Amino acid sequence: MKKQLLLSLLAFCCSLWSCTQNFESYKEKAEQGDKEAQYQVGRCYEKGEGVPVDKEKAVEWYQKAAEQGHAEAQFYLGGCYWDGDGVPVNKRKAVEWWKKAAEQEHASAQHNLGCCYLSGNGTPVNKGKAVEWFQKAAEQGDDIAQYYLGICYRDGDGTPVNKEKAVEWFQKAAEQGHPYAQYNLGSCYYCGYGVPVNKKKAVKWFQKSAEQGFPGALCNLGRCYYYGDGVPVDKEKAIECFSKAAAKGFPEALHMLNRLK
What we know:
There is one protein chain. This protein is mostly helical. Helices cover about 75% and strands about 0% of the residues. The protein is built from 14 helices and no strands. The chain has helices spanning about 1-30, 35-45, 55-65, 70-85, 90-100, 105-120, 125-140, 145-155, 165-175, 180-190, 200-210, 215-225, 235-245, 250-260.
């Protein structure tokens, strides 16, 4: 036991030394104007790697790298302004920096920008632009953008309603493990929205989403077990699913549990 503790302590000390050495190396290059090093110094200050956490200094170094066109620094600087980490919250500035990163094909910045245009947060609502940015990120394989693009095609936000495209993008995001996309894809198969009704496939996707704790999927899975949709009737499993969803405050699950009493 003592040997294991000693080895663990030694590994921790080596890791700490390595982080400190990395920071010093980055800092030297950053002070010479190297934008990648400036970004890395910012990350060290934000995460406390090799140096105490200092969100204000993180912003300072992100700013230096961002002004030199470093896309990742622009993305993180936008996040600092959005969350108020090291700077006062400023959604407009967050959008400005995300736009700069998005124009350099930064997928996460593109989906963030899409969300801003969709909701009107930090910029006026422009659902057409939201779809454009979601499309760019989705084509790079970004699951969040794929999910939102599916929502836009489903609801006709910024683009005409297209059931088949909604399903296509939900499918892509669902296959990457996005729980909301899995839930929506299951709902499409359950109701026959954009695809033929297939209750077994609906159950499959509700199950995957439910395993990640999404209450809507838990409730729908409970309904499937209760009514025997896509699976054999199993009242015990139905109650189990409804109970899990109800514990998360999902009102439909509470309603179903009350009906079963």
